[in-house]
Queue: 2 jobs
Job 1
Amino acid sequence: MSTRLAKQGRLIDRSKKVTFTFNGNSMQGYEGDTLASALLANDQMMVGRSFKYHRPRGVVASGAEEPNALVGLGQGNRFEPNQRATTTELFNGLTAVSQNHWPNLEYDIGAVNTALARFLPAGFYYKTFIHPKPFWKHVYEPFIRQSAGLGKAPDKDSRDADTYEHFYAFTDVLVIGGGVAGLQAAKTAAGSGAKVLLIEQTAHWGGRAPVDGGDVDGMPVDKFVEQLVSELETMGNVTMRNRCMGAGVYDHGYVLGYERLSDHAPGTQGPRHRLWRIRAKQVVTATGAIERPLSFAGNDVPGVMLASAMRDYVVNWGVTPGERVIVATNNDDAYRTGIILKQAGVDVLRVVDARPTAGPLAEEARALGIRVDPGKAIAKVKGGKRVKKVAICNQEGIGGAREEVECDAVAMSGGWSPVVHLWSHCGGKLIWDEAQAHFRPDPSRPPLGANGEGFVLAAGSSNGPLALPEVLTNADAAGKAAAKAAGFKPKSTKAPKGESMSEAAMEPVWLMPANAEIGLRMKSWLDFQNDVKVSDVQLAAREGYESVEHTKRYTTLGMATDQGKLSNINGLAILADALDAEIPKVGTTTFRPPYTPISMGAIGGEARGEVFQPIRRTPMHDWHDKNGADWEPVGHWRRTYAYVRPGESVHDAVNREVKNTRENLGLLDASTLGKLIVKGPDAGKFLDMMYTNMMSTLKVGKCRYGLMCSENGFLIDDGVVARIDEDTWLCHTTTGGAERIHAHMEEWLQTEWWDWKVYVANVTEQYAQVAVVGPNARKVLEKLGGMDVSKDALPFMEWRDGKIGDFDCRAYRISFSGELSFEIAVPASQGQAFWNDLMEAGKEFGVMPYGTECLHILRAEKGFIMIGDETDGTVIPQDLGLHWALSKKKEDYLGKRAHSRTHMADPDRWKLVGLETVDGSVIPDGAYAVGSGVNANGQRNMIGRVTSTYYSANLDRGIAMGLIKHGPDRMGEIVEFPGTDGKTYKAKIVDPIFYDKDGEKQNV
Amino acid sequence: MLTLKCPFTGAMLDETELHCGGEAHRKRFGPGSSDEDFETYMFVRENRKGVHFELWLHAYGIGKWFIAARDTETLEVYGTYPAQTTEPPQDIKDAITAKRPGWSWREFE
């Protein structure tokens, strides 16, 4: 059983007990424990089940690489699935639940999959779920969706109770990793005067060194670490952050750091996570190395653990994962585990070493009385929910002639792989190190910065060297090189001198025993989380998968939440062997950020709720809000959809507004419409290029409706243009279009016609604009007094500057409703006062404010198009019957050349028509018109679609516009629109102008 | 997350402040041009691995367009210059030649 030792545990405080629950059972640990160490101390060997076969799984590692010990953490609004127990610091009241089982961890129905494993090989899904075709939708997909996903998603109604923030940092040198190498590199770099930021993912400095031991400059390495940390803490140019992971390295020295501020102490004030957005001149990755598992049958049984993790649990947390332990290895380092266990009083039954000979550490182990078996291998681990015994055989051979030994834990070590993730994220290349059988950074091919020079340096064991002396000299050199590359002069100091026991060479062992028979290979796990075995990768190779990227996707090797930190190299070696190729030829899969999963909250930062996107408000926003506004987002603006009175539905309100505006007087807040000033000697020429119609000939004082196309010919915006003076035009854009069209104009002015003398200014927010609409519009303005707004003084499509009531204003006689209409712009600061005066003066004329839905219905009754309804980026003016707005006089304008392309001139293009339902109902929005016959997919042929559809209170019927093939030639024909409600709507093709066809009402 | 130097102010700009406008030095073909020329102008792009010229807008800043000569493979930036030009300045071309002798990009080399 796994248990707490009486002594040891450098990170725990035995005087401070901590209570937590696992699957509802109350357990105790100490302050300084991780959830994993505390679970092991409580003999909780089994902590979850695997994804595919639901096999019992236990803790296998002690850090970020852990694939098995994933739990659901917290409750309610703080519940989070898939949290690694090995990186979760224990606190009082922690609640954890295990994952991927039903009904519970001990008894799980899904475990039947393991019995079926023979029938669930690699690519099972691809092979099985293809036929019969209808089964996919009705049987396979629901089944797979049911069983997919490891943890439980948080309740959909819960909201994250914590806050998060982003933090911007700029530094000369960023050191990622606070082990001995990172600390030393930071110190050396900082010695040059460079600004250094040092981040470490765990809560502790020093990394593995205090566990693995050795001496530096004559003192034990843990003392050396303490000294280094206190030195760095006093340096003004050094910033240190623990619990802060280097998540990703990106272009030109951009790095994301993920700081977990209060995961270990919930309830602490301030944000829970902080995303560091770092720009560094130089990055030193001192990210250490990760031990590889060995591939032998049953290597996934709870109790089988990485050798390094096992000694971490003993030294750091005073926990032993077993009482009778067997060590399996292909290198000297694992002997340290045997020695440490033995010294802690644990029974170390033997070290099974695949190599024929071992180094001095083996001698030390033997001297302690540990039996060493050279040339031996583990044939099989027996046990279900925990290790019961181990069968030992010769490493050479297929795994026969086994000797069985009873034990309760196995420590395994297949050698070490440098953590090259951060080096690789932005294009750093790797080389294969034959001696240590691992990939390490190729210093001649680092990721390059803006100046074409490398900006990442690897230091310490993440660069290849594993022994303390080399780690320190390597880190010292990296610190100096980084400072120099960042423009500083490093001091000529000596690297600290490390001493550790010399080690004999490791020997690559990719399978144990070397020629294990198929029964063993089918139980030898590579990827613990996704259940990929040696036999799966071999099968993939036999089926023709040669590329490691394809094999990964076919077998799902390395695709779990741990991203193959333990499994990739072993899987790669098995694949290379199966393909009879060399490992470096097969290559690695791509390392992608983040290094371990980071929270969505951290990515979002402060940008949630109201601050996610700022809302733009018109000067009259508050009035609308107080007067029943039903809000509608339009671009970043909020506009009033309708002003709902007590007792009314929104629909009632819209109908009331629609009728009142036609019969009496309506006010619309039109402030959101874009207003761009285009000014300069070449402004007319420029606008002739921007608009399809002629703007340069517009007379001062007059207005013209204009269309804008992209160079590709498609409609992008429309609006009324007014000529203000000889070299000034004011262009109205759509509400959502102001910034876009402003940018569009600037782009053409700066990148194509940069010699034209034109300025463009966006003055949208400088003005409040009110549309005064309806038969009584003139009356209310005359009552307020001021400028002459008579038909003769201010004719249709003209504008005047002047005063209305107390307000300086510009009045445009333009109409988007077909009624007598004035759009009056006043300074934004006067908007509310002007609106108030209009409402007051308008009382006797039946004034009512109206919203955007009324605006839409009024324009649809008149057959006016709306950008975004009648257009969708594929519609040209000709489709909408707007030929009259395409200048024939102009040689050139944006879109003109495109309109002569064959597809644009195709007579079969769908064209705008009005649609009148036969029974007066309203066609559903977005409905398609169907014709005779079916297409290749057996669907009915489409001949058009609805673009705008409304109930018109004025006409008391549904009206719509749509684009129909040959529409204008088919007036009077009936077309069918199948709805998603099962009904088919029949509509007659009619002229799009439903109301006041001759335009008499606006011309009074 | 590139950093580019603003050729107008000399400030180092972060990619989050910028908007990429696609390939630079496109020659406009308007009415009267052949289908082939118009197609090339509208749709055909170099999309090169290696030396490349791109339009960038300092969108969250001074609102100016400029051109970056950079390497899409190594991410090296050879230089930036105002967009108000029809061809790369000589010093930019020299900087590219120093790193990529014999380079060519459309009609430039």
Job 2
Amino acid sequence: MADEVKLPADSFEPLDKSKHLDSEKIAAPNLTFTQDAWRRLKKNKSAIIAMIILVIFFILAFGSAFISPHNPNAVNPQFANLPPKWPGVNINGVNGTLVQAGSRVNAYQAAGAGAGVHYWLGTDYLGRDMLSRILFGTRISLTVAVVATAVDLLIGVSFGLFSGWKGGWIDNFMQRVIEIIMSIPTLVVVVLLILILKPGMMSITLAIAFSSWTTMARLIRAQTMELKEQEYVLAAQTLGESSIKIAFKHLLPNLSSIIIIQTMFTIPSAIFFEAFLSFVGIGISAPQASLGTLLNDGQKNFQFLPYQMWYPAIVLSVIMIAFNIFADGLRDAFDPQTKE
Amino acid sequence: MAKYLLKRIFYLLLTLFIVITVTFFLMKLLPGTPLQNQQKLSPTEQHLILKQYGLTKPVWQQYLTYVAGVFHGNFGTSFQFSDQPVSYLISSRIGPSLLLGTQAMILGVIPGILVGALGAIKKNTWVDTSMTVISILGISIPSFVLAVLLQYFVGLKLQWFPIADWGGFAYTVLPTIALAASPFADTARFTRTEMVDVLNSDYIELARAKGLSKWGVIYHHALRNSLIPVVTIIGPLAVNIMTGSMVIENIFSIPGIGEQFVKSILTNDYPTIMAVTIVYSVMLMVVLLITDIVYGIIDPRIRISGKSN
């Protein structure tokens, strides 16, 4: 009892308050949904490479009006079927020579082309520059695919949202409609639509869009049914928010990852359908070119002039591969939990 | 089960009926008649030809005749080949298509399952990586590009197999490979994902803890359980092969219905287009129905009646 500890006030030293306020603070800034996805995507090297390749292709294709060396539709019969020739490079395949009847001939000399004439990827059977045609063809293929995907998105998302939100017999009916559409092979639907709309860029775009929205609609519907049971949606309803506003303010932002992922998978399939139809002969019609029509032209005499088919085939394949890898990467980035 | 089956068959018939109706009226919207060189024929002759095709009757009567005909296997007469019934055109050409489709399905699915499973077992090794690369290529490269590549390298340069035409087994090799590539890639990817999932589950741990050998665990527990969901992708794969067959049959000059379909589109042969559309839809619907039933039988966890998705 006797040993009373004396603690005078001056034995305490006040700490700087402002320093300790920080201990509760989170050092890293809050990441938004997109930033978070971007951070994960950046770690995926193959997806980033694929993205860069796609950006390059988009720039080349849509800048083709300025950068293409020749007019893609200018016919020049004198220089028909010339193989690729790169100035200053003497490697078989890019030096302007061609194997004819077992021996190599200089096709440029045979055609009477001057020393300054060179076509980077050769010319086709009408003497049109292949490089320019491939650039313009890529532009058409990409345009068709992107526009078709946008229309597909619009139909699919609104159909899915409406069906999932309404529920009941409306949902039931709308699902039967989707089931019926899905049990007809997509290509048959596309072909029928093209026959009615007459072949052309517009009809091919619409046909692809109208026949491929069902997957998107089903995904959106399933997710909407889950979301509409969430508290924040119920709260918004209780507060008297209109359905349209709830759809835009609450549902769409929460559906965005599904929408982005599905869109990235739809674009390559649209590119495939466009190329497919043009290849078969019911897609883009002459003089317009797409990767499919170029492939079709090239396939006709690939035995003797294989370069006319290689380059469109390579461009188409690279674009498809890049889109698929990028889409895979985006899926992992936006939705790390999905297993597939 | 019986109730479910009846319901499915009812929906199948309903869908089929809608498909027939829609294609019929779509075709009626299109211009074009079976007449060639219209100017040269007198109106009476034109009328006679149209009458022969039954095109002088009112549209609703034509529709009823058509629907009745379809259920008796009569699809009308081809515009392109005069006097040739469409049903004959199709039945004489369905053989090669079915043969190619079946071969492609087998060649795609079975190696796909094996490769996919191997990728999952050897996860994150070079085996897995090369499997992923191959499947990305298989999914990305369009079948017709692959077909032409095969024609050029294997057919023309190596001369291992005929480039085109239809004869014995050798003629089916290249088209089958071209058709099977994408189903193979799809199956491999799907199986890998499923297998990775299964290998991480508790019952696999238990099987290992019991002291089963590595391959015993994989064969008896992992592979069997990851195979069940693979059945669900058979339907989409069938669509894939049907789509592919149209262009593959063209490239390899195979007398199948895919080639006929493209030809009919290019020549506006409406009766044949309608018939092939119906045949394709029926094939797809039957495949979907069978896979659903098989799925219900092999996976007891699925309550088939309560299934909505």
